[in-house]
Amino acid sequence: SDAGVQFAALREAFEEVGLHGSYVEVLGQLPVYATGSAYLVTPVVALASPGFSLTLNANEVSDVFEVPLPFLMDPSNHHHHQMEWQGVQRHWLSMPYQDAQVERFIWGATAGILRNFYRFLAA
Questions:
Q1: Could you give the C-alpha distances from 109 to 42, 49, 55, in angstroms and in order?
Q2: Alpha carbon separation from 107 to 40, 92, 113 (Å, rounded)
Q3: Burial bucket for residue 11 (CB in 10 Å: 0-12, 13-18, 19+)
Q4: Which residues have CB under 8 Å from 33's CB, separation 6+?
Q5: Closest to 14 (Cα-Cα) out of 69, 42, 41, 54
Q6: What is d(CA 117, CA 82) in angstroms, rounded to the nearest whole number?
Q7: HEC-encoded secondary structure of 74-91
Q8: What is the pLDDT along the chain (123 residues), one digit of tens a residue?
Q9: How far is CA 43 from CA 9, 89, 117, in A?
Q10: What is the pTM of this model?
């Protein structure tokens, strides 16, 4: 029922983490990303202005953290993995990030979308 992909992304950001749209400037969207479980995700890229506050929806999100863009755009932080599972070779990316005393592990679709964002910016 959303008016488009960008409106859906703004609604989801508000529902999941309480990010109010008045703090968000949508820049555009990336190509559709197909997950390993056959979901199609349209990533929306936006800037968030300083001063926002978040309220996490515990049914959707357990934690939130910020990673500097230069870290995400450094290909040396993009780790490639593979393993055989049920007779099929599986491949995925991760981007481990040390956040103060906590190691964060960005992986799966999120890491894949960020890798595509890196490729888009590097082109």
A1: 11, 25, 23
A2: 17, 7, 10
A3: middle
A4: 40, 41, 42, 43, 109, 112, 113, 116
A5: 54
A6: 21
A7: CHHHCEEEEEEECCEEEE
A8: 889 999 999 999 999 999 999 999 999 999 999 998 899 999 999 999 999 999 999 999 999 999 999 999 999 999 999 989 899 888 889 999 999 889 999 999 999 999 999 999 998
A9: 8, 26, 9
A10: 0.88
Place of tokens 């992986």: 107
Dihedrals phi, psi of 33, to nearest 5 degrees = -110, 125
